[in-house]
Design a protein that fits this description.
heterodimer; A: 114 residues; mainly beta; seven-stranded mixed beta sheet; B: 110 residues; five-stranded mixed beta sheet; four-stranded antiparallel beta sheet
Chain lengths: 114, 110
């Protein structure tokens, strides 16, 4: 199945700053997905990123807060903007590799905002 | 997205079978039943999926009720490495995204 490289693996950031998380896939994929996992909680989908078009955001998530880039079929970035302590979470990217392999997830970025 | 209901937690012993239940009474005819698990400090990983018939792979078996309103993930011989949160998820035939519920936290005792 796909190998996903996600960077950084963790970071501690000051409130009011922004962090950009990178997700690199070892093969071309049409859609990439970004999730947030708050402490002790399940995963919540933030947005779906298509190459060549704007990302589609889920209810409760907006582009100004979580801008996404998708410059090609193997790479995407998620920026967490103007961070507050409530943004402290694990952020994960994911791709769909077909019914036989399901979705593959990156190992996540553990973000702490202080 | 159709909803699934799973127990919050379950406990089992090493080398014994584990049956993880999932209720999905509002499942539609084209919804696939997916199972993923999330090991500590890792992203979720695919376990198995099915539509109507029972399925087996190297990781687990999936038993689907005849009316499809429930399913059971079966780990035939649990190891300590199987301790994880297990998510049962319905995915529509044309759906692109995966929507997670709360899952079942499985503890394996040595």
């Amino acid at each position: 199945s796909a190998v996903i490289s996600q960077k950084p693996s963790r970071d501690i950031c000051q409130r009011g700053t922004s962090l950009t998380i990178q997700c690199q896939v070892d093969s071309q994929v049409t859609m990439m997905f970004w999730y947030r996992q708050q402490p002790g909680q399940s995963l919540t989908l933030i947005a779906t990123a298509n190459q060549g078009s704007e990302a589609t955001y889920e209810s409760g998530f907006v582009i100004d807060k979580f801008p996404i880039s998708r410059p090609n079929l193997t790479f995407s970035t998620l920026t967490v903007s103007n961070m507050s302590p409530e943004d402290s979470s694990i952020y994960l990217c994911s791709v769909f590799r077909g019914l036989d392999y399901g979705y593959t997830f990156g190992s996540g970025t553990r973000l702490t905002v202080v | 997205d159709a909803k699934t209901t799973q127990p919050n937690s379950m406990e089992s012993n090493e080398e014994e079978p584990v049956h993880l239940p999932c209720n999905h009474s509002t499942i539609s005819g084209t919804d696939y039943i997916h199972w993923y698990r999330q090991l500590p400090s890792q992203g979720p990983e695919y376990v198995i999926h099915g539509l109507t018939s029972n399925v087996n792979n190297r990781m687990a078996s999936l038993a689907i009720a005849e009316d499809r309103k429930s399913s059971t993930l079966i780990l035939h011989r649990a190891t300590l490495r199987d301790a994880a949160v297990y998510y049962c998820i319905l995915r529509g035939q044309g759906a692109q995204k995966l929507v997670f519920g709360q899952g079942t936290r499985l503890t394996i005792n040595p």
